[in-house]
Fold this sequence. Notes:
Elements: H1 14-32, E1 42-46, E2 54-56, E3 72-74, H2 91-102, E4 108-112, H3 115-122, H4 132-135, E5 141-144, H5 156-163, E6 168-171, E7 175-180, H6 183-204, H7 215-231, H8 234-250
Amino acid sequence: MNAIAISQPRHCSDEEWALRVQLAHCYHLVDFFGWTETIFNHISARLPGPAHHYLVNPFGLNYSEVTPANLLKVDLDGNKLEDSPHDANPAGFALHSAVHGARDDIHCLIHTHTTPISAVVQKKHGFGHDDFYGAQLYGRIGYHEFEGITLFAEEKARMIASLGDKHILVLRNHGIAVGESSIAKAFFLLWTVQRAAEIQCAAGALGGEDNPLPEEISQKCADLTAMLIRESGFAVKFFDAMVRKMHATRGPSW
């Protein structure tokens, strides 16, 4: 893959540029792991400040084509705040603007619907908590009934109510959205959800009876994982290691 020469624009602060670089890396990682839905889905990162402005991908580009410079800066209504030849995917505004407008503790939101995730959220029971990764999600998921493609502002309040104080929103019959206080934490949460879905699908395809975990063990796993992410540099170490792995395989992203 040929690297693209990208430099920081003069008008862009160091803080915003660092966020842009990390968000672009996140897009490339989602592509690297095969979790993309071609040019669809979205990852957003809230910019510092009281205005709830956020960065999101230009619609029509592959995730591997996203760079720090071509990310769009938008407001909660999806209006572009800087000139760009690209537009954003309107299906992303209802979800991302709703969460960024309502949850000050969520600075990065990632929406995917990989095959394993879509299969799990198709099921009435949703995510189980009897495997190593599923146990880490115990008590951390809100469920939202499918209302069609998320285009309309009138669904925002219902999505936020479904999310509550959780950090994982299952969009039933659709996909998931995970949100955290940083890009690295959100990516690690996405990885955990993806692994839980993969294992649940594989276990469901096997014969034989599952070995259920007691609820107190699942709760212990979820609490411990949340503490590790919140109070240590665990997520940053994981994110940086995955970027190095990607670059060792593909070369520099830009």
